[in-house]
Amino acid sequence: MKIFYYPGCTVKTKAKNLEESAIAAMKALDIELVELPNWNCCGTVFGMSTDDLVHQLAPLRNLLRVKEQGGDKVTTMCSMCYNTLKRANHLIREDEEKRRLIADFMSEEAIRYEGEVEVLHLLEILRDVVGFEALKEKVKINLKGLKLDPYYGCMLTRPQEIGIDNMENPTILEELLTALGAEVVKDPMKTECCGSYHTVNAVEVVADRGYEILHSALKRGADAMVLSCPLCDYNLDHRQREIAKKYVDFSGIPVFYFSQLLALALGLETKESRFDLNYVDPLPLLREKRVVV
Amino acid sequence: MKVELSSEKVHSDFVKKVEELSGQNILSCYQCGKCSAGCPSSFAMDLLPSQIIRMVQLGLQDEIINSKTIWLCASCLTCSVRCPRGVDLAKVFEALRLLVTRDKEKLNYVEPSEIPSEQLEELPQIALISNFRKFTG
Amino acid sequence: MEKIGIFICYCEFEIASTLDLERILTASRKMEGVKYAGSYKGLLDTSHQNEIAESIKKEGLDSVVVASCLPRVHQKLVEETVEGAGLDKRSLEMVSIKPESRNGKEARDFSEDAIERLEEAVKKLGKRELKPASSVPMVKKALVIGGGVSGIHAALDIANGGYEVFLVERTPSIGGHMVELSEVFPTLDCPQCILTPKMVQCGQHPNIHILGYSEVKEVKGQVGNFEVLVKHKVTYIDWNKCTGCGECANVCPVDMYSDFQRGTAPQKAIYKPFAQAVPNKFVIDKQGIPPCRDACPIHLNAQGYVQLISEGRFKDALTLIRETLPFPGTIGRICVHPCETECKRKEVDQPISICYLKRAAADLGEEDGEIEPTIEEEKDKKVAVIGAGPAGLLAAYDLRRRGYKIVIFDRFPKAGGTLLVGIPEYRLPRVILEKETERVRKLGVEFRFNTIVGKDITFEQLQQDYDAIFIAIGAHVSTTLNVEGEELSGVIHGIDFLRMVNLGREVTVGKKVAVVGGGNAAIDAARTVLRLGAEEVHLIYRRSRKEMPANETEIEEAENEGIKLHLLSNPVRLIGEGGEITHMECIQMKLGEPDASGRRRPIPIEGSEFMMEVDMVIPAIGQSPNTTLLGEKIGLKVARNGTLNVDPLTLETGITGVFAGGDAVTGPASAVEALGAGRKAAISIDRYLSGEDLRKDREDEWVKPKELAVTTKGVEKKPRVKMPTLQVPERERSFNEVDQGFNQEEAISEAKRCLSCAGCCECMSCVTACEAHAIDHTLVDSYETINVGAIVVATGYELLSKDLIEEYERDPDIMDPLQFERILCPSGPTDGVVVRPSDGKTPKEVVFIECVGSRDPEHHLPYCSRVCCMYSCKMGMLYKHAVHDGTMYIFYMDVRTDGKMYEEFYQRGTEEDGLIYIRGRVSKVFRDGEKIVVWGSDTLTGRRVEIAADLVVLAMAMIPRPDAKQLAKTLGIETDTFGFMKVAHPRLKPYESTVPGIFLAGCCESPKDIPECVAQSCGCAGKVLSLFSQDEVESFMSVGEIVNL
Predict the structure, then answer these.
(1) What is the pTM of this model?
(2) Starting from the edge strand earliest in sequence, which strands make up the sheet with C943-949, in order?
């Protein structure tokens, strides 16, 4: 099957490991992710003020593109894009006046968009279209022996009306990783914020947040973190440099995108998972657990 | 530490504007502190999120603007989803930031031109764009 | 009624300011039947009342609608006016047009609302026909629903007033939540001490009938004469005989969740909720039939013996098993255990090892002196059983116990059938089989071995000599492979091979052996031939491992022993040289669409043939009965697959007096299914020989039980105890038993995993222990209708479930206040010693969180639960009295201590007992190692607060009982959106519900503390006594109905 896919800016540059592993993994599951033609930046964050209609244009224009192409669904693997697109969509679905205003404003487009497209995160496709039971059958390399700590961050589950799972106790990543054969660690920090955009001008805050989250994982016996968002990944993987500087007892821990492990488990070649782009090298761990030779 | 209250202060344009931009009823907040209790950035803040709301309720505009709190908010939405009175705090903080960044007389909280180029190259766009959206006018 | 007048009362403040009177009056005048409509400022004063009377006369009105802000309060006055004007007061309808407060909701068109309500009233009057007014005599008896502190006080006051009271209580004892508490505020009295005297008074009062363990099902009638249907839930105990001694609970093996202890301690399936229970009687909590027992073909009481084993009572377990099954040692070693497939524990981790536990009971439960089964009075009828396998043996056993004379004929030298000749010794040692089949002989059954019916003795002879015959000859003919070369030397079929080995005959075994098949017979043959000296043993099966019918443990053990599995392969021909087999050609298979059996059809892959070097081939792909002698030849119908045809309900064949069952009828199946057939045949033969109808009620022999609600969520995972086995090297060439069996500890540990699905498991230990002979497991629910003149509802409260608060984890050390009360209570499960549930250690840092679920309009309940501020202070004080060096933190928003002496109590808590109050709510509570971490705020200092606590108590919101809404519906009374029952008017009528004659007392009406409950219930009693001062009451529901908001 084919489904439109919205990449967003970061997966094309700084998070190629997320994109490439995801596309390859989905292909192995007979799902082709067709990149949306003419997509534009989603704006990253949902414009929350009541008068901020201009910032809704960016995400909604992407959904308009999907409709234009004849699609009624679009998927994305970046948590922030997912949140922004879905919240903007939800806004115009609920508010008739804003829907009309924005559609009118985009009158130069060939068609009118009024909330017809469904926004799905790639994890939802795995859960609802492929199904975790069916996925289990396709696993060629069992991730047995790996103790993984799934990390959701903020954008996948909040607010509840757009969340892909229960916002206080999501289990979708746990279910995915268990289907792939891994053991999952129970961690109360899994929905606590990584510091997000403070990584630009308040790195200390991010270092403190990162330490709290990663230390919790290490304390609970995790071998690695698993997440879905390029910003969380930057803060929890790349920023380990800053965390180690501030916290001398911090030993470091590999961080995976869920799609990298998915690709691996489906038996694709290791290079398809693009582990070379991870900051903390995960290969020693994978070799130790005999997941990779 | 004295404050003089009057109807001008508690029903000021500032208060009205915050309510309008955020779409929230500020007087719904009964100061329970649950938002502050769960806020991941509060450890670095001088005033707690619940205290900021209190100040909006009393119209204490200057104290809010002079604090670091609204600029330490990460828009993680934990406060909004847990508030028992249903006040979407993240939206209130967004409104407060907008009142500063939209004011031509004030400077941006983050000045993009001052970020060193190596940093601009290293940081993922997602971080830069979201940061500028929140902290610049 | 066709001449309706509408009179609207208004005042500037209430109605005129929000309603458009002109519009309402215009609309009213247009309504059908309305002759007059007018509005009056201040309708309730005399001049305007006169105006109503005048208008009625002037316009010739026959009915009247009066609209005001508080119709219930105004009703009586207006009735008098209307009657004064010559109308029957039932020609009046009162309407409320008071605009509801906005409360943040969208503005409604209040005028439109008012018009709608007036229209409704007009319609009602239009249809109303007045019957002559009559009255009913007042039944001066009262019903009190709920036996908590409120119900008890109401009952006592009414009874002391001289009237009979029925006190219906849902649980086995009265007392309610109050007796669960440790101490009560503000006096810190012991609630058991202050309430139990009242409870005893209720129990002994000549005017009070306590209907315990009962519920109100239906209510009909009106004030003065209610007809109430009460259901007495079955207790399985005759309360007239029960002395409350508790000997039964001492022997009950089943632990269940206790409502009274709220999870801090279990109670037995037979229980009395607490020591001072009134009535002082026991009840049995029996939910139904557990899935294990239902799945078993002989409905063996699996839960029963598993629970007995969990208490180490192996002998009792064995006795229980032997009531149904005389062969536990045998069946416990080889059963295919359909019970385990249905076991609910599998939803948590793995099913209970019910089969292994049965074996454990047989191995460990035998003590000196076997229990002799009873035999009924001897009968002079004789029955012949052909086949000493499980079907034949059990049929013989059952029939012998009924007194018949039985002879079993069998072609083999010993008893057992397939158990003897099919199953290898390393699975079922011969001594066990012999010992158990000997039980059948000891009953007086005669065995004639080495006898083939149809050859050594004719079937006709049997028909002459015996009054009935049961054919249970099994399925001992092996299915051929149907390939070229099958006749070569070295090819010997599985069951033939096993039979020869088991009967001790010489068998030549090859070095490279191939076994074809995937069932238990194939695995048995493979593991046997390995033990006899084969060097390589290969198992060839045409489907994949998932489809193999053999027991999973058997397949695993075969692999452990070195047998190689070749899945998705099938033989195509056997190749030999000089008449001896040398090779087997096979082809690889793939799985296609499912076939008739539901399994995926194997399809050969073209060109994938491969050769295997073999010197022995053992086909074991299927079996069928040998019907050459006992089949069509003697007049029996035989199906295409070789099995005998019988009536499935009675097991009759076409020949009168001849029955058949087991593998001979079903084809190869399990031993336990054969046992089921044997038992069924015995019932049929008994009826046949007694001249009874064979078919009557046979379908009801076992009614499929209803599905049980079993909690599997939150059960801690604990895998099955592993069966110890002989190490692989020790098994080489030996037929010693591989499975060693559980020892006592292992059996008890495994049995403790049982979830007690059915509650009481009917092990009947209680029946034996009860000296008063009060227990009867066959009792059923009963019903009773009572007539009362007034009803007081006092059903109390429940606490909102902690599970609904998702930001606080589920953890044994995060409790609700009633659980903490049980721990603090000196007569509680820990005798008042404060320990935490997870590890029994003393908690030194305790956090109490207020307002959980309360004052939370966004996610849970908007209201304040009223009692939590006081009880948390109380529990803090009690905690500090018990743990002097402990610290209690209380996270609050406001401290609401408004009753008499309450503020002083709170002051004591802080000044004398050092309670630390922190003003702020808590965002998250989670476990971190040994601690429970609490994230809260101190809004007064402006700091976020983190506490690493040992124990956390959540002050959960107070809500009505879950069945309150249903009860309200039954009574016809109104509830609010939360399910609390509504009073007629919050200020002026705080006792009456919205139905006359039904009064509300206690927390079923709204959250309140004990002094307020008592006050309200005594007030209700007063209302009832005042009602009973009348000897009759008008017989209509209400004088004028009120159209509600």
Answers:
(1) 0.87
(2) C922-928, C931-938, C943-949
Please answer whether residues C21 and C38 qualify as being in contact, where contact means their C-beta atoms are separated by less than 8 angstroms.
Answer: no
Choose the CATH number for B7-106 among 3.40.50.150, 1.10.1060.10, 3.40.50.300, 3.30.470.20. Answer: 1.10.1060.10
Distance CA C865, CA C1003 (A): 10
Nearest to B34 among C921, C938, C942 (CB): C921
> For chain C, what percent of residues have pLDDT higher than 70?
97
Per-residue confidence (pLDDT) for residue B39, from 0 to 100 = 97
CA A23 to centroid of chain Cα atoms = 13
Tell me the pairing of strands C580-594 and C610-613.
Answer: antiparallel
List chains touching B (3+ CB pairs under 8 A): A, C
Please state, in angstroms and rounded to a whole number, the distance separating the CA atoms of residues C963 and C727: 58
Paired strand residues for C574? C584
Q: Give residue limits of the domains in chain B.
A: 7-106, 109-137
CB B89 within 8 A of CB B49: yes
Q: What mean pLDDT, rounded, does chain A reach?
A: 94
In angstroms, rounded to a whole number, what is the distance separating the alpha carbons of residues C230 and C218? Answer: 7
CB distance A39 to A64 below 8 Å: no
Cβ atoms of residues C974 and C968 within 8 Å:
yes
Q: What are phi and psi of C23, to 5 degrees?
A: -60, -40
Encoded tokens for A149: 């700590």
Which residues on chain A are in Cβ contact (under 8 Å) with C807?
168
Q: What is d(CA C215, CA C230) in angstroms, rounded to the nearest whole number? A: 6
- What is the Cα–Cα distance from C791 to C166, expressed in whole angstroms? 9
DSSP codes joined into one string, C516-528: E--SHHHHHHHHH
Check if the beta carbon of residue C776 is closer than 8 Å to that of residue C237. Answer: yes
- If one compares C16 and C10, the residue with the highest pLDDT of the two is C10
Identify any residues that bridge with C405 across adjacent strands, giving them in sequence order: C382
In chain B, the N- to C-terminal Cα span, in Å, equals 32
Burial C153-167 (b: 16+ CB within 10 A, else e): bbbbbbbebebbbbb
Contact A254, A281 (CB under 8 A): yes
Residues 6+ apart with CB under 8 A from C941: none
- Judge if ipTM > 0.90: yes
* A252, burial (CB in 10 Å: exposed 0-12, middle 13-18, buried 19+): middle
Confirm or reject contact between B120 and chain A (CB < 8 A).
no
- The closest CB to that of A50, out of B22, B41, B72, belongs to B22
> Tens of pLDDT along C783-808?
999 999 999 999 999 999 999 999 99
Question: If phi over 0 gives left and psi between -120 and 50 gives alpha, with beta otherwise, what is residue C889?
Answer: beta
**Which domains can be identified in chain A, with CATH numbers?**
2-122 (1.20.1050.140), 132-288 (3.40.50.11810)
C662 token code pair? 């087991």
Distance CA C478, CA C496 (A): 8
Inter-chain residue contact C806 with A188, CB threshold 8 Å: no
Q: What Cα–Cα distance (Å) separates residue C536 from each residue in C404, C617, C787?
A: 52, 12, 84
